[in-house]
Each structure stands twice: as C-alpha cells, then as structure tokens.
Task: structure prediction
Amino acid sequence: MKAFFNYLSRACYDKGLGLLLIRVIAGLIFTVHGWEKWQNIDSTIRLMALLNLGGAPTAYFIASLELLGGIALILGVFTRVFGVLFGIEMAVAAIIAGAPRGFGGYEFEMLLSAVSFGLALAGSGKFSLLKMECAHCGGILCSGKPPECPAH
Result:
C-alpha cells in the first residue's frame, strides 16, 4: 500500500506545473480586474481619490499594472518583478479597503498578496515564455556557470 501511495505521489509531483497553475490563475484574476478598471476608468479614478491614493495617476498605474502584469504572469515573463508589485498592491488594498470591513472583507486581497509574494520567491518555473531564473541559484539572468553562479 505504501508503494502505491508513493507511486501516486511521485506521478503527481511537478513543481513546474504547480507554478504554471498558480501563475495562470493569478494572472487571469489580475488581467480581468485590470481590464474592468480600464473599462470603468472614471469610477476607478473616483475610487482612488476617495481613498486618498492620488486619483487619476494612481488609477492609470493600477489599471495598467493589473492588465499588463496579469498577462505577464500568465506568460511567465518578469514573474518576480510583477510578483513583488502585486504583493505590495494587494497588501495595501487589504489594509486600506478591506480591513475596515473585518476579516471577511480582506481575505481575498491577502490571499492574492501571499500568492504574489510566493511567485516572487519561487519564480516562473519551467513552463514560461521567458524563464529568467537560474535553475541552480535562482538568480535573475544568471548564466548558471561559475563564477557568476554561486551554486557551482
């Protein structure tokens, strides 16, 4: 029985597929929300002004970040950069917009923040359009060869 469970466990073990699944779903969420912000940019500007977040410049930045960054996550391009940016954005959203509503009001933002920071730490994985992380040390644009790669 132990051998059977080990076989099943090993058959389903693929970090790259796990990262792809997380990247695609998070990317879709951000892309759809960014598109909605662009479609209702006047409302987005008013919301940013209401929250004292700078109005139009912040609204255009956030809408662009979510739309373009979401697409980048789906493709696996600049995953770590967008992971950090989305992690910060969602943490701020949870603090500013969600916290006054209680825990039921900000768990989605906190989950997206944690997923985004997790992607920033893990990288894009092997299934990406532009894999920028070294498989040995995790460095961005590292050649994977000594002396540049400390893992060798």
